[in-house]
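Translate structure to sequence.
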């Protein structure tokens, strides 16, 4: 079976519905066809200033949400990135074949660093996409299911794989992104021209939120001054986003929803959507809570995942070290 890799950062207690629809849903369906490897990428989240205790809690919570959403630890390896040292080690080698200008062109770095200012921007945020390339290339992953915001980072991973192969001989599999257009970019409810994000949690629908909070978030979603329920990303980004979420969860096409809501108001749409969202997320939340009640069992799953992937990672790193001419220890 071809291999697949993906990961999420433990940067909040809860994942949001963008993470779920943009990536996690694909993770679940793809684990049947692929040898799937899913990581909680805790090293990536060190680019954000976080309390150590909170980071540990969030790392377990993120893993619990993978499983609660349907990732099956019997089929897929679920592990914590920092448990496999090769991620950090391969990053160094890949850093040395990445152009400074090439890394500087990453739009996520530009966005995040301009929000944080130069004092708040660390070098880790800059080299983040190289660590991500290492995550993927270590496992010879053919496919990487992610949201649209990761397309450019994936392109960098591909370029680095090709460059390394060109310079040192065939070493890495060149990974393909797997991005589902309809749900690849769920927008923020408060700022519907920006993507929903764990870094601005006020406008997100969270997997672990209680149903009342979810309904309230949806009710207060920013829309527009018209009354018509119609998909139009440019003129009506808020309504279009609600329709995308609705369609993804409920199975009706956007065109069908437009017809069904003809003559109805935004309030009706929001009320119904809240019900649909709570219907899907409710069971995920409950299952995640159960899993979090037994941290020892979660840790066992994560240890097992790391054990399964470690031999793959160490074989790749040994191959890389050899190719670039690092003297093997005797
Ligand atoms: P952060 O703000 O900490 O970067 P994030 O919400 O961007 O958080 P990540 O952990 O960086 O979450 O990304 C996890 C996965 O979710 C990636 O595959 C990413 O492409 C996807 N994703 C993130 N936000 C969205 C979104 N709004 N719509 C669709 N997919 C998304
Ligand atoms: Mg992100």
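Result:
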């Amino acid at each position: 079976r071809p291999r697949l890799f993906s990961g999420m950062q433990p940067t909040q207690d809860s994942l949001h519905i963008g993470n779920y629809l943009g990536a996690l849903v694909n993770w679940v369906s793809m684990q049947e066809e692929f040898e799937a490897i899913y990581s909680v990428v805790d090293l990536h989240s060190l680019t954000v200033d976080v309390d150590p205790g909170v980071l540990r809690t969030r790392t377990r919570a993120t893993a619990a949400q993978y499983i609660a959403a349907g990732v099956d630890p019997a089929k897929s390896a679920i592990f914590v990135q920092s448990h496999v040292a090769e991620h950090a080690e391969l990053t160094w080698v890949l850093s040395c074949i990445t152009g400074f200008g090439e890394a500087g062109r990453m739009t996520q770095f530009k966005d995040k660093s301009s929000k944080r200012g130069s004092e708040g921007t660390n070098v880790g945020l800059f080299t983040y996409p190289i660590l991500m390339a290492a995550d993927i290339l270590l496992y010879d992953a053919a496919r990487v299911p992610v949201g649209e915001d990761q397309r450019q980072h994936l392109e960098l991973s591909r370029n680095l794989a090709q460059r390394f192969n060109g310079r040192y001989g065939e070493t890495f599999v060149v990974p393909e992104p797997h991005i589902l257009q309809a749900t690849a970019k769920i927008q923020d409810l408060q700022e519907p021209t920006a993507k929903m994000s764990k870094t601005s949690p006020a406008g997100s629908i969270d997997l672990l939120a209680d149903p009342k909070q979810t309904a309230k978030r949806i009710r207060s979603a920013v829309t527009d001054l018209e009354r018509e329920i119609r998909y139009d990303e440019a003129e009506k980004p808020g309504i279009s986003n609600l329709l995308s979420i609705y369609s993804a969860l409920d199975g009706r096409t956007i065109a069908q929803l437009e017809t069904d809501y003809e003559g109805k108001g935004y309030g009706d749409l929001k009320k119904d959507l809240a019900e649909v969202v709570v219907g899907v997320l409710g069971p995920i939340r409950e299952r995640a809570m159960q899993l979090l009640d037994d941290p020892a069992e979660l840790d066992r799953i994560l240890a097992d995942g790391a054990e399964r992937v470690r031999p793959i990672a160490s074989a790749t790193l040994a191959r890389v070290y050899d190719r670039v001419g690092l003297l093997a220890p005797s």
